[in-house]
Amino acid sequence: MASVYNDLNRPPLNETRLQRALMVPGLGFGGHSVAALRVLPEVDSTNTALLAAAADGAPHGSVVVAEAQTAGRGRLGRTWVAPPRSGLFLSVLLRPDVPSARWGWLPLLAGVAVHSAVARVAHLDVALKWPNDLIVPGPDEPGPDVPDTDAPSGYGAGRKLGGILAEQGGAPSQPCVVVGIGINVTLREEELPAPHATSLVLAGAEVTDRDTLLRAVLRGFGSWYADWAESGGDAERCGLAAAYRAVCATLDRPVRAELPGGAVVTGQATGIDPDGRLLIRTADGTSTPIGAGDVVHLR
């Protein structure tokens, strides 16, 4: 269904203005806040577009933003659907000079940057659901320390505001990671792709200007990336692990992890290991690291 909202409600992003604001000398993505930035009217997927650009030699710190995606992707092959200009749809190209075993922290790092930007700019109470979802806590769970209910979506009383998808690419001699970020900004109830979704507008955000949000997300991402890379990918030493734990709604609660291949691990989510994996303590006391899968929050 086509959106009824016009440019007055959903103004386009200004590529030139964003380039001037973000492609400046400094820390962040290796010498500049952003190495290159393009705003495209429509792509199949920003991750797909940037992975192709990476294969052609696009530099570390390149960013692709789209006003609309025709085949946006989420984790585990899921689709990401939203009307044009109703959200932030972007991808960042990274060529980390740290051990690849630590690259599992990149979607979590992006999550911390997105959480901080939304909380600071939109003045909205949000939390992270491991590994890659930004959620708005439900009315009976005011923050990440309060358990939600078991629900088919896995979010309980919370509602999904955004998500992150990290994909590896590049040649074996020059590997890269593309981190895709999607945030629902102005979607109305009838435009939501799923019952457990929400948007900044529906959640009562004070600010929904996409330009302001995009700048905050990328500056925060660049700052955290610089600290993480300087520490050799040591999330504890650079403070990333502590920052993630402070806003993660998955920790210190019963969970069920549904793994690729059909295996299920149920227990208490106790922490994040040095490689960014979720640690679940099962009934027999075993601590099981989970690197991929769907995690359901249980009461």
Tell me about this structure.
This protein is an alpha+beta fold and 299 residues long. It has 2 domains: 15-246, Bira Bifunctional Protein, Domain 2 (BirA Bifunctional Protein, domain 2, 2-Layer Sandwich), CATH 3.30.930.10; 251-297, SH3 type barrels, CATH 2.30.30. 21% of the residues lie in helices and 27% in strands. It is built from 5 helices and 14 strands. A 7-stranded mixed β-sheet has the order 1-2-5-9-8-7-6, with helices on both faces. Strands 13-12-11-10-14 form a 5-stranded antiparallel β-sheet, with no helix packed on it. It has a two-stranded antiparallel sheet with strand order 3-4. Helix 3 crosses helix 4 and helix 3 packs across helix 5 (240-247). The two termini are 36 Å apart.
Q: Taking Cα atoms only, what radius of gyration do you get, to the nearest Å?
A: 18 Å
Portion of residues within helices: 10-25%
Major pleated sheet: 7 strands, mixed
Shape: globular
CATH topology of the largest domain: BirA Bifunctional Protein, domain 2
Give the number of DSSP strands: 14
Order of helices and strands: HEHEEEEHEEEEHHEEEEE
What does this entry show, briefly?
With 299 residues, the protein is α+β, with helices and mostly antiparallel strands.
Write the layout of secondary structure elements.
Layout: H1 15-22, E1 36-40, H2 46-55, E2 62-66, E3 72-73, E4 79-80, E5 87-94, H3 106-121, E6 127-129, E7 133-136, E8 159-171, E9 174-184, H4 210-230, H5 240-247, E10 253-258, E11 264-272, E12 278-281, E13 287-290, E14 294-297
Parallel strand pairs: 1-2
Antiparallel strand pairs: 2-5, 3-4, 5-9, 6-7, 7-8, 8-9, 10-11, 10-14, 11-12, 12-13
Helix pairs in contact: 3-4, 3-5
